[in-house]
Amino acid sequence: MNTWYDFWDQVPGQDFRVDFTPEVMNVTKPLQLPQLHRLSEALAADLHELARSHIAIGFILTLREKIDKQLDELEHCRHSRHKTNQVKRNIRILSSPFHRFHKELDEYRQQASWSTNFP
Q: Could you tell me which of 30, 1, 3, 35 has the C-alpha nearest to residue 107?
């Protein structure tokens, strides 16, 4: 997240809400874009495995809808710690078949925290 603020600190007009940003400006700290290919490959592999192991028609779509519903619920229950914890538990249970994705996500988070702490 620090790289996001470092990037926008270089853009004139952002701090003072001036409506003028020059057509050309020099940027000395580029915005680092995350490498998501390993995450997407892991998710695709997990989805492929789910499609093979769960032959019920619409299983993956139903699972997506259940996860999506829980994510929506998470946004609405931020005021209640108990409800938030319950929804997060439901999401963990629903997303448990995504072993490869969770492993890559953990590695991604470790790498992201390392890269933001050591520029």
A: 35
Q: Is 56:50 a contact under the CB 8 Å cutoff?
A: no
CB contact at 8 A, 43 and 99: no
Amino acid at 28: T
Query: Tens digit of pLDDT for each residue in 25-78?
Result: 788 887 777 778 999 999 999 999 999 998 888 999 999 999 999 999 999 998
Pick the closest to residue 5 from 25, 32, 23, 26 (CA basis).
32
Number of Cβ within 10 Å of residue 2's Cβ equals 12
Report how far apart, in Å, the C-alpha atoms of 23 and of each of 4, 32, 95 are.
20, 22, 45
